[in-house]
Amino acid sequence: MSLLNRIKDKNPQTVQEIHKQQPRPQDQQQNSSGRTVVVQEGQKKFNQKSSEQTEKQNKYRELKRILHNQILQELKETDDIDAIIPKIDEMAIDIIKENDQFKGSIDRKKVVEEIMNDLTGFGPINPLLLDEDVSEVMVNGPNQVYCERKGRLELTNISFRDNEHVLHVIEKIVAPIGRRIDESSPMVDARLPDGSRVNAIIPPLALNGPTITIRKFAKDPFVIDDLIHFKTLTQEMATFLDACVKARLNIFVSGGTGSGKTTTLNVLSNFIPNDERIVTIEDAAELQLGQEHVVSLESRPPNIEGKGGISIRDLVRNSLRMRPDRVVIGEVRGAEALDMLQAMNTGHDGSLATGHSNSPRDMIARLETMVLFAGVELPVKAIREQIAGAIDVIIQQSRLKDGTRKIVKITEVQGLEGDIIVLQDIFTFVQEGIKENGKIAGRLVPTGVRPKFYDQLENSGITIPPNVFINEGEWEA
Ligand SMILES: Nc1ncnc2c1ncn2[C@@H]1O[C@H](COP(=O)(O)OP(=O)(O)O)[C@@H](O)[C@H]1O
Ligand SMILES: [Mg+2]
User: Least CB-packed of 93, 264, 307, 322 within 10 Å?
Assistant: First the structure.
């Protein structure tokens, strides 16, 4: 069904629903707390105030209803929503002029904005999508909407009318890209036109009601100076990582969900010289590289019959036949680990990837497990040899309790000693306490150890000032 038809289809019902709508639980709570007022005078005032409020709300709904009807009327004559949108505000002005009841107190802008959000955007969450400070939006059923603002989770006062309303927004998101959500496919991944990633899951799988999670696409992706400014890493660490990328070391960014792995991977990828051919491989394209010569590949989930899926592993294998100078893999989480390690060990150096894990040591252990997924019978020692030979640097990223993202470790993978992979931290984050404002205090410090690959860096004509490994002066986090 086209967007237009859906609006036509849904709106009459919508208007009635708005009309029927009961005060939201928040409002009711206010009322019941009002009852505790003992002084009679206060009670009267309160009652007066709340009845004024209800009256205002009713007027507000009435204006919205009339406006809705007029828009529907117009839509009967023309099918072009875009032509109507600029006229909505004028229509509202006219309605207010013609109806005495709306004179004075009504907030026209708010009514018009809400209607526009429903017509053109994604309903009640539209303001969050437009707000540049908001990085994620989480709808847990109609009455609970969270957002992440500047790294912190916040409960908003946004709500949907009901489950139908949330479903309607989900449909609006997934329909343009040819996906659907219903009982037979109750989970869906999609992307907004601006590239933001969306996941939706509905009842009976989601018990809260239809649930939407949106990871917003950074309009201007962060660059290294942003990360330094956020104190995710120091200037010295940045200098070091820039050199590692240019020297074609294989680098793995490890961290939890939302710790900033992909962002760091993006920043690191932008250190790759412009004259190299870069192939990126992701589940859902998030990387935004500034270089000219970039080929982006995206995996595809199987269809309902379980057919037609293309995995990250398929893409990694394919990419090696594409004459890449660099392969950048969004997230390694399964059998592709084996192909990636083999590629890194056979001349495709300078590769970058991320993986989900809590420490560099844990990342190694997980890679071992992932290689086993590939279904090749390899002795553990052989797997470790592969890992130690392939990966040069692990960057551990973490989202701290105060919401900040930090590179808490830059660790060199030095090699295999006996059965053990030797790791050496080059930089670490030392937490020193919690400040009064709740921020975590600490320092990002070099351990003082120069990496074994320092000579490799120098051989590639890259010099790092030695004080990068010892300077502790300006490491305030
Ligand atoms: N260093 C950082 N400082 C502040 N915010 C960040 C940083 N890195 C990422 N973010 C924000 O955190 C969210 C998750 O980042 P992302 O890189 O996608 O994490 P991951 O790939 O680990 O899941 C995004 O909204 C992003 O804008
Ligand atoms: Mg990611």
Answer: 307
Q: Is residue 217 in contact with ligand 1, taking CB distance under 6 Å?
A: no
Question: Would you call 376 helix, strand, or coil by DSSP?
Answer: coil
Among 260, 298, 259, 291, residue whose Cα is nearest residue 275? 291
Q: What pTM does this model have?
A: 0.69
DSSP state, residue 284: S
Q: Which residue's alpha carbon is at the smallest distance from atom 17 of ligand 1?
A: 260
Q: Which residues pair with 444 in a beta bridge?
A: 429
Distance CA 423, CA 363 (A): 11
Ligand 2 center from residue 356 Cα (angstroms): 9
Contact 403 CB / ligand 1 (< 6 Å): no
Distance from residue 223's CA to the centre of ligand 1 (Å): 12
Q: Does 122-219 carry CATH code 3.30.450.370? A: yes
Q: The CATH number of 224-469 is which of 1.10.1040.10, 3.40.50.300, 1.10.357.10, 3.40.605.10?
A: 3.40.50.300
Task: Check pocket membership of 196 for ligand 1, CB cut-off 6 A.
Answer: no
Domain ranges of the chain: 1-120, 122-219, 224-469
pLDDT of 20 above 50: no
pLDDT in tens, 258-273: 999 999 999 999 999 9
Residue 16 or 63, more confident? 63
CA–centroid distance, residue 332 to ligand 2 (Å): 10
Distance from Cα 83 to the centre of ligand 2, integer Å: 39
CB of residue 396 inside a 6 A radius of ligand 1? no
Long-range contacts of range 77-86, CB-CB < 8 Å, 24 or more positions apart? 79/4, 81/3, 81/4, 81/7, 81/119, 81/120, 85/116, 85/119, 85/120
263 ligand 1 Cβ < 6 A: yes
Contacts 24+ apart (CB under 8 A), 75-79: 75/4, 75/7, 75/8, 79/4
The answer, yes or no, to whether any atom of ligand 1 lies below 6 A from the CB of 353, is: no
Q: Which of 254, 263, 287, 329 to mutate to test the pocket of ligand 1 (most atoms within 8 A of CB)?
A: 263
Q: How far is the CA of 411 from the centre of ligand 2 (A)?
A: 20
> Do you know the residue count of the chain?
477
The amino acid that residue 270 corresponds to is N
pLDDT tens digits, one per residue of 272-310: 999 999 999 998 888 999 999 999 999 988 876 788 889
CA separation, residue 161 to residues 21, 25, 183, 205, 374 (Å): 8, 12, 21, 21, 47
